[in-house]
Structures are given as C-alpha cells and as structure tokens.
Amino acid sequence: MAPPRARTRWSALAAGALIQCCAGSSYCFGVYSPALKASQRYDQSALDAVAFFKDVGANAGVLSGFLAAWAPAGRRRPWIVLLAGAALCAAGYLPMWLAVAGIAPAPLPLMCAYMLLAAQAQTFFNTADVVSAVENFPDRRGTVIGIMKGFLGLSGAILVQIYRTLHIDPTTFILMLAVLPTAITLMLMYFVDVHNSNERYNKKFLDAFSLIAVTVAVYLMIVIICDRVFMISSAVQSVCFAILLLLVLSPVAVAVKAQKTESIQHEEPTSEQRIGLLQEEVAEGSESAGSSTALGASNQDLSAGKENLNVLQAMGKLNFWLLFLAMACGMGSGLATVNNISQIGGSLGYTYKETSTLVTLWSIWNFSGRFGAGFISDHFLRLRGVGRPFFIGVTLLIMSVGHAIISSGLPASLYIGSVLVGLCYGCQWALMPSITSEIFGLNHFGTIFNMVAVASPVGSYILSVRVVGFIYDMESPPDDHGCQDTGVQNMVLI
Q1: CB of 472 within 8 A of CB of 346?
Q2: Please, where are the H alpha helices in 25-107?
Q3: DSSP state, 301?
Q4: Which of 64, 193, 206, 282 has CB 3.0 to 4.6 Å from 127, enough for a Cys bridge?
C-alpha cells in the first residue's frame, strides 16, 4: 500500500483550521484596550480611532484577495498569502507592544498605523484559508466557510484562555499576539493549498471537522462560565487549557485518517465499496439536482456565478451594493458593540474580569453564528429552496433587538444583548462569503468578498467613532475620560 500523500484537501483544511484558531487577534482588543488607553493617555474618541483602524485592517482584505487570485503558471499559491499575513502580524504588534511598554512611545497616527498592519494580517490568514477551503470543497461551500469562519470566531476565546493560563499582563499579551499567530502560520502554511476538487471524498470526515468545532465551542463556554462562577486554581486552569489544546489539534487526526482512507480507496475498491460509491453517486446526483433547483428559485442572479465576474464587474451589479449596505448596518453595528464593550460594561458597573469574560463569550456567540449559519443555510437551500439572503434579513432584525436590550441598561442587559448581537454578527460573516461566491463565481471570490467586507469598517466608523465615541465623551466628566451609569442610556444610537 502506498503511503498517503502529505498534502491533500484534508491536510489543507486541518492546517487552515489551526491557523484560524489563532488568527482572530483583533477580537481581543477589548482585553488590552484599557492598557493601551492608560499608557498612551487617550480619551475615548482617540481609542475609538485606533479601534477604527483595527476594523479597517481586519475587514478591508482587498489586497489579500488580489494576492490570493494571483496564479503564476496557472496555479494559486495560498502560502504566499499566509507568509504576507505573518509578516504583517509581527510588523504591527511588535511596535505596538514597544509603545505600550514605554520602550518606544508612538503618537496616535503611528499607533493607528501599527494597528492597521496588525489587523490586516487577519484578512491574509482568513482569505487564504477560506478560499482554499471553498475551492477544495465547492459543493459544501456553506459548511466549510462555516468551519473556517467558526474557528476564526473562536480564536479570540482561545487566545484569551492562553492569556489567563499564563497569567500575563495586557502589555505582554500584545507581545504574545505578535509571536504566536506568526509562528503557527509559518509552521503550517506549507500544507494550505488548492487540490483537485473533482476527486470524491467521504462527507463523514467533513462532519467530523464540524463536530470538533462545536465541541471546542461548548468546552470553551463551560470553562468560561465555571471560571466566572467558581474560583479556579492555576493547576486546574492549566489542565483545562491542556484539554483545549488537544481539542484544537484534533483536526490533524481527522485529516490523517481521511488521507489514509482515501489512499486505500484509490488503490483498488472492493465490490462492496463499488456498490457504496455507486449509491453515493446516485444520492448526491439527486441532491445536486434539488440544490440546483433551489438555487435557481431562491436567487435569479445565480447564473452570474457561472460568469466568474471580476471585482469591477461585480461592483457594477445592484446585488453587490445591496449586500454592501446590509453588511455596513449589520457588521458595523456589531463591531461598534464589541469595540466599546469594556466601556459599556464599566458604565454599568461591571468589573474588569466581567468585561474580559464578555469579550471571551463574544467569541463563542460569534462562532455559533458563523458555524450555524453556514450549516443551516446549506440545509435550507438544498432541501427547502430558501435562499441565503433571507437569513441576512432575519439576522439584521434580531441584531436590532439585541442593541435595544443593551441600550436599556437593565440588569444583565449586556449579557443578553451581547449574545444576540454576537450570534447575528457571526451569521453575517458566514452568509456573506457564501452569497458572494454563488452570485459572482469563484475565480475572483477572494477579492470580491473582501471588497464587500469593507462595509464592516465603514459602518463601524460611522457608529463607533462618530456616534458612540462622541456621545461617550460628551457624557463623561470633563477631567475624567470615563462614564458611569447614565452613559450607556445615551448609547442607544448603536
């Protein structure tokens, strides 16, 4: 029996999932933003300006899209995109750490530039991993996008668990954000590649990746809640982190098992395997026919997906701008919430531990939305003919309810509201790339979905910097850049 290949679609999916697990450093802004604000003596508007450049960097991934679409000798090179992301991560967080540590102070414009570079790395990691996954599993794009986006959403909680296990201060945490994602990406980027998507695969292994993602999310939620309710010792915290590490690494075992199984099947299938493959072909053929009918009924513009439009052609379509507007409202308001969650919590009397817990839990809700939206939208599209844009409308409606709950200032309103907003925010990040690939095709998918993602920082700038930050500073005492109790009542405009 020939040994399994080192690089297959499964190894690419596993390596991409591991990179995604540490790529979401921008979601940890709420953990170190108080240290950044205090060390640089920023007011809330200045801190929101830094947060805005974080949002621009983390969402405006047009450059990464162009680099991902570049195919020298007719073949894409995702590792080049990942290498560029690793360089940006180190180039952004290292000087930021030097500034916060007091070693090399930086003025506000330079700090914004550091944050832009650090956050831009996330788009390079995300684009390489998502585009590779969609091209390797084009018939399950909703599911694999949910997996990739889900692990990215969990990365904030994973990074915070490392921060708490190591008992480091927020300044050292910034240094960790410079080193850890860079090192892991450099180790794994070799395995992330685009492979022949015409080869058959066993869906049970894809389901195993989904199960791992859900397991990690549930485990993290249990650990976070227990840490909030009980006094957990350092030894127990270390054991909990070791278990988390094993769960995060388990996609590697699934990839190895899948590669071994496929290498055996490719050699000489038995008569029983031939019958099983034939049955799978018949089942998938009928499913594909149903899916095609559902797609046609739910979205008349899906025929444009066969045209494989480039970014300029896509921007000439009404669908592009409708999607852009929806994302500006949804993602922009979600970012305005997570960027100001520490300040909102402080206004309501929450402790620093409670607000950092909210930041970690946000990652769980973010994951649940990303993973759930991808899986559920695939299900309803294939079996019920319900288009993904319908779910965009539902998430925007629920998100509005969440913002209203937060603005009420009632007891536990921040917990309840952040759950709804985090879930819907994650849903939109899974639905938007899927809709983009179905409408505009796969050839320039990375560039187009990153162009639509620019709507997120645009909406965040309007709502977070121009609305929330302005009202927060207006309500704060003149000599104190802090707000208590009544400040949140006036943040209803989120």
Answers
A1: no
A2: 29-40, 44-59, 62-69, 78-100
A3: G
A4: 64
Instruction: Please state whether 262 falls in left (phi above 0), alpha (psi between -120 and 50) or beta.
Output: alpha
What CA–CA distance (Å, rounded) separates 144 from 207?
Answer: 10
Tell me the residue length of the chain: 494
pLDDT in tens, 393-447: 999 999 999 999 988 878 888 888 988 999 999 899 889 988 998 888 878 888 8
Torsion from C-alpha of 97, 100, 104, 108, nearest 10 degrees: 110
Helices (H), 299-412: 311-315, 318-339, 341-347, 352-383, 388-408
Angle CA 397–214–84, to nearest 5: 85
Band the pLDDT of 278: cuts 50, 70, 90: low
Class of residue 8 by CB neighbours under 10 A (exposed 0-12, middle 13-18, buried 19+): buried
> Does residue 279 or residue 118 have the better pLDDT?
118
Which one-letter amino acid corresponds to residue 31? V
Cβ(64)–Cβ(123) below 8 Å? yes
In which element (H, E) is residue 457 found? helix 455-460
- For residue 441, the SS3 value is coil
Amino acid (one-letter) located at 279: Q
Residue type, 18: L
Angle subtended by helix axes 62-69 and 78-100, to nearest 10: 150
* 89 contacts: CB under 8 Å, gap ≥ 6: 25, 118, 121, 177, 178, 181, 182, 185
Distance CA 242, CA 57 (A): 32
* Cα 65 to Cα 221: distance, rounded to the nearest angstrom: 33
Count of CB atoms situated within 10 Å of the CB of 465: 22
All residues at 6 or more sequence positions from 84 whose CB lies less than 8 Å from its CB, including other chains:
64, 67, 124
Q: Which amino acid is at 157?
A: A
Distance CA 176, CA 19 (A): 15
| Predicted model pTM | 0.76
Residue whose tokens read 């769960």? 247
> Is the alpha carbon torsion for 39, 42, 47, 49 positive or negative?
negative
List pLDDT tens digits, range 34-82.
889 888 888 878 888 898 898 788 877 888 888 888 767 667 788 999 9
- Phi then psi for residue 151, to 5 deg, are -65, -35
Handedness of CA 494, 113, 427, 445 (dihedral sign): positive
Phi, psi of 191 (to 5 degrees): -85, -15
265 CB-side CA count, 13 A: 16
What is residue 297's predicted lDDT score, i.e. its pLDDT? Answer: 40
